[in-house]
Amino acid sequence: MGAYVGGWLATAPEVEVLLVGRQRLADAVAAEGLVVSQGAREERVRQVQVATAAAALAESDVVLCCVKSRDTEAVAKELTEILRPEALVVSLQNGVRNPATLRAALGAERVLAGVVGFNAVLRSAHEARQTTDGDLELEQREHESARRLYAALRAGGLSLTTHRDLAPRQWSKLLINLSNAVSALSGAPTKELLVQAGYRRILAAVLREGIGVARAAGQPLARLRGLPVGAVPMLLRAPSWIVRLALGLKVDPKARSSMAQDLERGRPTEVAYLNGEIVRLAAEHGATAPLNQRLVELIRAAEAAGGSPSLGPEAFWTALHEREDP
Ligand SMILES: NC(=O)c1ccc[n+]([C@@H]2O[C@H](COP(=O)([O-])OP(=O)(O)OC[C@H]3O[C@@H](n4cnc5c(N)ncnc54)[C@H](OP(=O)(O)O)[C@@H]3O)[C@@H](O)[C@H]2O)c1
């Protein structure tokens, strides 16, 4: 996500972009430039520098935090020692805890929450491609660097909306991200999850449970693509052609959730910050969320096994309703 958003930002006038990433990214971008693409739009961006240590961010006005949730605390600590006091830090991460983690280390005024409503994948070490449509949503802040950031993102061609209260959107996005575990355990591309009624039955059940927990906790939720969140599980149970028509989703056949990509690469996933968040919220309100709890268990088992069990719809439904031995 950092390479994708950073790449388009670098195409905006008067914006200097520095990526902080691993050596493999630095080497590939130095050799080939950074390639970003969305639909038929593609840019090879040569004016992007890549550093491998956060110290390179010392003079930055704005830092976009695009690490996985488990790394946020460590990154926040590093940034407190490096950044100028007026620098702004923006979380473009999934889950609902990352802005608070950054604020605890850096101070509330310096951190903006963000929600990324689309998916992006690395096609190779230096090529980042957007694979579903959707907006970038940021907290609205009267801050000079924030205003410049909004303008630069739009000038770079990203579809941006800003909001005074982002929490209902963060929670609605979290509910949608409950499906990442289904994507990872099935190994199926996003498009197939939406096309196959057997997978949609699973997505609907998991989402319905999540919505119930959020409502019981009194958490306001934003509409999703114009639909009340509560209507989405109902829609998922409708015939495939209605789902496609109603969601109006443009999904690349190769689109896969970042959790599926993590499992494939043998990396730990963000399941604790997504399905695990629903389990925690339920427990805080004296309730349970057995389906999301089970997804956490299944993902943990897949992480330990080093890859996706590639569950088909029937086997998945059965596994979802089994209980771990006490
Ligand atoms: N990808 C999407 O489509 C998408 C969509 C919406 C939201 N998001 C959210 O965006 C966030 C990032 O996701 P992603 O898919 O871009 O993850 P990712 O592919 O794992 O990218 C994060 C990169 O940061 C690197 N990194 C971590 N700590 C670092 C450090 N201290 N210094 C330098 N590099 C460091 C990681 O390297 P290592 O792997 O070697 O640690 C990894 O290459 C997540 O919260 C995700 O949920 C992603």
Instruction: Give the CATH topology of the largest domain.
Output: Rossmann fold
Strand order of the largest sheet: 5-6-7-10-11
CATH architecture of the largest domain: 3-Layer(aba) Sandwich
What's the tally of helices? 15
Structural class, from secondary structure content?
alpha/beta
What is the CATH homologous superfamily assignment of the largest domain?
Answer: NAD(P)-binding Rossmann-like Domain
Strand content: 5-15%
H-E order: HEHEEEEHEHEEEEHEHHHHHHHHHH
Q: If you average the pLDDT, what whole number results? A: 94
Bound heterogens, unique: NADP nicotinamide-adenine-dinucleotide phosphate
Morphology call: globular
CATH class of the largest domain: Alpha Beta
Proportion in helices? 40-55%
